[in-house]
Design the sequence.
């Protein structure tokens, strides 16, 4: 049975931690516990010099004897590190009987909690667990977090704590207070605290607090590119915007993995197409953005790919500007570059293509179709968005404009997601696209000789997976 864990932090003031065992494994746990300020009692017939020294300094208590049920009953939690199965099992059972939480080193089956790897920036503590699935991965994650968190993060947290009373007194409204704190951690006051200049930090903080207390909360919109699908293709800036959002307005291309990264209590408004209902009109979406921002919220308008590539970002920005609402744009990886990377398909190539064009297969009503003459240059890669239902027309027009019917074509559905599918063919087989089963996700059509660069090995798999895509059909 896979084990599942719920992370909690134990208050070391709440009782004594009992460590059973007197050698290196036990000493390691004792060090961790002492580092967190715990009261520690060690029970073991023999103890190593490190533990002896700690006892001599009165930092721990040692009982040099076999562990008893009473030892366990009196502890707040127990760690058993004896490397002796009989003792470990005894400790585990006694702990169950007395309702004391127990960890037996390297024996998840005998434990009801594990000790995570930690990144310590007290009072900030980051705990990492892979539930035993991949301890090395856990260590790598820890190294990454160590690298990105300033060594003085703890100082910043303490400094913030020292301001809490003043902030609470001066800024009565809870939403305004939260917005103050969001600004605070980006401010020069925070920078100063991080570089241990607490005097300047205090001065800057007072200015910030007074401003926030006097000023009106200003709403704004951040238009964020969510990338092609995979959540880890978000930019760091997009992630930060998601974590600061009060309101998130998103549509169908934005998947749950991306939304999971947003602030939990942000209001989420779906404005995409819904079964059996009309999708929201652009005016209605503009109206929602304006209203939410006027209420003083930080609104994230989350769009698939990049907001400025077939994303109608330009129209929304116009409406917001007219309403006098500040807008920032965070770029995203557009479907074309996401899909190209996922396939190992270069969009430009010294041998094949010196131009790449992004075109739409579905221009706005009343607007002319893409200029197929302009897309027919053989040295050009044409990436066509929203072209699935018009595949036959697109192929016909490109061929009529002089692109070879044998020009390689790739169709990539759900690029970068687990459900990604790739179909390879040629311009002449492209019209058969509509016959491919279950092609229901967003899909891109890539036309050009660069498609021949897709790695040979995946090509074979794709041929198989692509049935009934008739690779060899000639028009
Ligand atoms: N702003 C988006 C495009 C929105 S238009 C961007 O920059 O990517 C919607 C079209 O984008 C879809 O019809 C499809 O052609 C393409 N698209 C978006 N995500 C995709 C994905 N994961 N895989 C393939 N095509 C995608």
Sequence:
């Amino acid at each position: 049975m896979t084990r599942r864990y719920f992370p909690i932090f134990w208050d070391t003031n709440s009782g004594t931690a009992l460590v059973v065992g007197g050698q290196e494994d036990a000493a390691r746990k004792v060090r961790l516990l002492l580092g967190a300020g715990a009261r520690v009692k060690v029970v073991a017939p023999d103890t190593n010099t490190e533990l002896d020294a700690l006892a001599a300094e009165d930092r721990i208590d040692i009982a040099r004897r076999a562990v008893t049920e009473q030892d366990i009953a009196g502890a707040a939690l127990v760690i058993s590190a004896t490397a002796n199965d009989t003792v470990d099992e005894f400790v585990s059972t006694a702990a169950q009987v007395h309702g004391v939480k127990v960890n037996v080193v390297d024996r998840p089956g005998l434990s009801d909690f594990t000790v995570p790897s930690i990144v310590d920036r007290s009072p900030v503590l980051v705990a990492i667990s892979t539930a035993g699935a991949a301890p090395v991965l856990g260590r790598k994650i820890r190294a990454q977090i160590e690298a990105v968190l300033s060594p003085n993060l703890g100082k910043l947290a303490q400094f913030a704590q020292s301001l809490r009373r003043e902030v609470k007194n001066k800024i009565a409204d809870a939403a305004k207070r939260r917005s103050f704190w969001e600004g605070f951690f980006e401010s020069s006051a925070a920078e100063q605290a991080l570089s241990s200049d607490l005097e300047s930090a205090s001065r800057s903080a007072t200015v910030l607090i007074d401003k926030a207390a006097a000023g009106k909360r200003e709403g704004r919109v951040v238009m964020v590119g969510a990338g092609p699908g995979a959540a880890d293709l978000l930019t760091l800036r997009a992630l930060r915007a998601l974590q600061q959002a009060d309101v998130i307005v998103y549509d169908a291309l934005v998947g749950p993995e991306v939304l999971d990264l947003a602030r939990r209590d942000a209001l989420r408004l779906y404005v995409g197409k819904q079964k059996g209902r009309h999708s929201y009109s652009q005016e209605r979406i503009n109206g929602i953005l304006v209203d939410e921002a006027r209420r003083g919220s930080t609104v994230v308008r989350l769009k698939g790919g990049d907001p400025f590539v077939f994303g109608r970002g330009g129209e929304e920005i116009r409406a917001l500007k007219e309403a006098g609402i500040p807008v920032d744009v965070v770029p995203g990886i557009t479907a074309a570059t996401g899909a190209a990377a996922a396939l190992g398909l270069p969009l430009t190539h010294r041998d094949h293509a010196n131009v790449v064009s992004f075109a739409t297969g579905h221009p706005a009503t009343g607007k002319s179709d893409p200029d197929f003459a302009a897309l027919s240059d053989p040295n050009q890669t044409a990436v066509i968005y929203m072209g699935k239902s018009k595949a036959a027309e697109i192929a016909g027009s490109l061929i009529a404009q002089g692109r070879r019917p044998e020009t390689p074509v790739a169709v990539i559905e759900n690029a970068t997601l687990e459900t990604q599918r790739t179909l390879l063919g040629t311009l002449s087989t492209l019209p058969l696209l509509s016959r491919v089963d279950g092609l229901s996700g967003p899909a891109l059509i890539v036309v050009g000789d660069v498609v021949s660069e897709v790695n040979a090995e995946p090509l074979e798999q794709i041929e198989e997976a692509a049935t009934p895509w008739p690779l060899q059909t000639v028009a």
